[in-house]
Amino acid sequence: MHADLHSHTCHSDGSLSPAQLVDAARDAGVEALAITDHDTVAGLDAWRRQDNRPGIRVIAGVEISASALGRGVHILGLGIDMDDPDLRALLAEQQRRRRERAEAIADRLAGIGITSARPYVDSLPEEQVICRTHLADHLIAGGHAQDYRRVFKKYLGKGGRAAVADNWISMGEAIESIRQAGGLAVLAHPTRYKLAPRQVSLLVHAFADAGGDGLELSYPNLAAHDQKTLARLAQTHSLSASGGSDFHSPDKPWARLGRFPALPEELETVFSRLPAHGTLSN
Ligand code: AMP
Ligand code: MN
Ligand code: MN
Ligand code: MN
Fold this sequence. Notes:
Helix 8 links the parallel strand 6 and strand 7. The model has no long low-confidence stretch (mean pLDDT 95). This protein has helices spanning 18-27, 42-49, 85-111, 117-123, 132-141, 148-156, 171-180, 197-209, 224-236, 270-273, and strands spanning 3-4, 32-35, 57-68, 71-78, 169-170, 184-187, 214-218, 240-243, 279-281. The chain is globular, with a radius of gyration of 18 Å. Helix 3 packs antiparallel against helix 4 and helix 5 (132-141) crosses helix 6. The chain is an alpha/beta fold and 282 residues long. The chain has ten helices and nine strands. The protein folds into two domains: 3-91 and 167-281, Metal-dependent hydrolases (TIM Barrel, Alpha-Beta Barrel), CATH 3.20.20.140; 92-156, no CATH class. Strands 1, 2, 3, 4, 5, 6, 7, 8 and 9 form a nine-stranded mixed β-sheet that branches. The chain binds adenosine monophosphate (AMP) and manganese (II) ion (3 copies). Residues 8, 13, 38, 131, 133, 248 line the site of one manganese (II) ion.
């Protein structure tokens, strides 16, 4: 079973609707797809309302922003009960914090002469989960930067001119809420947090201690030697292995649906442990 356990729709910062995403995944040879939008299950709600269900297994998921070791990390919840009221309440709070953060970023941008950002943020519909990529797109469209790499470096990333401090729930709270909702908690892309190897190992240790279930250790551009290091850490802390493309959009060719290195054979997979209630269609 070719399972891609990390993907985004237009309900967070992806470009495809859930139906388009599932079609594209099936066309790419994916047999099971987890939809894991940032801090929302709205894409899953939309998917569930469709009557036309193709022959692909869709897994309910979410990617929760949290803080650990003084920085932002992403925790995937896979096979969650998307109707769990406590999880929904937590996600609503995350969305409120996201909007607050976007307003603060926009106000900082106004302070350096970019006054269009605040009206832009205010114009986003209530139900939109606001990611920094929305502001990135706005800044690029306004000619303030050429591409994502530059706009994050200059304005939105750590140390950027409009960067604001993170205010996420703790990693422990994220893990707890995912597990309470019957899902498996997976630490997403551990090499993408700009941590030194020693800190990655501390992060994985803290994640396992807080009750985490799995480590994402197959994703685009992960070097083979980094995967080996992560696989050893997973083994040390009895964590299962997860893999996913982190697909956002067809025009971001570095993350294509279903395309990531194979999982190391010696580890138990997160996919094999997924509960039945987290599957929306077969
Ligand atoms: P947020 O969760 O709102 O902080 O937005 C984070 C999202 O922005 C990530 O999921 C990526 O999709 C994107 N992102 C963050 N940093 C960069 C970067 N340096 N280059 C491109 N995309 C980035
Ligand atoms: Mn994203
Ligand atoms: Mn992420
Ligand atoms: Mn993601």
